[in-house]
Design a protein that fits this description.
5-stranded parallel sheet; 7 helices; alpha/beta; 12% strand; globular
Length: 176
């Protein structure tokens, strides 16, 4: 087994997860796992379904496993399966058992929960600008309920990046 820290970046829509993933990967000179959902939905010629959310979850895990082999001591994951769980529950009222099982099996050394302190940016794939506080609470409560190691990342630009780096360095020191 390779000694690679797995760090997930999670949170509601339009909280800077993708940007933070790219910036952290560059800062630590490693790779990151892009959000599979974005590319998948861009390629659909129809509205997505609940079955698509399961396919997205499976694609995210597959990409994560593939990128793990390329990581330089840290692997950053732009989203994780709690995203698909909350997305499915908000949209459809339930979540596929496969996703729930994989959440239990797929562990991270740290989860960075992006706060809603950034301005909303409209995007065709974003659906809930009016639910930011509610969605953030769902993420926060899910992470607490599961007893996962997480930190809330706040600030904008370089400040947000350096807040995340500070949390990561605390974890790295504990793992040396």
């Amino acid at each position: 087994m390779r000694n690679v820290l797995k760090i997930a970046i999670t949170g509601p829509e339009s909280t800077g997860k993708s940007r933070l993933s790219v910036e952290l990967a560059a800062y630590y000179k490693t790779v990151y796992v892009p959000e599979f959902a974005r590319e998948y939905i861009d390629q659909l010629d129809r509205p997505y379904t609940q079955e698509d959310i399961l396919k997205i979850a499976k694609g995210q895990i597959s990409d994560e496993e593939s990128k793990f082999q390329q990581a330089n001591h840290i692997l950053f994951c732009d989203t994780e399966l709690i995203v698909t769980k909350i997305w499915s529950e908000v949209k459809y009222g339930n979540c596929d058992p496969w996703i729930l099982q994989k959440i239990e099996q797929n562990k991270y050394d740290l989860i960075l929960l992006c706060d809603i302190d950034l301005p909303w940016e409209a995007d065709p794939q974003r659906e809930h600008p009016h639910m930011r506080k509610e969605l953030f609470s769902l993420y926060y409560n899910e992470l607490v309920h599961r007893g996962l190691v997480f930190k809330v990342v706040r600030g904008s630009g370089q400040e947000r990046l350096m807040n995340a780096v500070g949390f990561i360095e605390t974890i790295r020191i504990g793992n040396l």
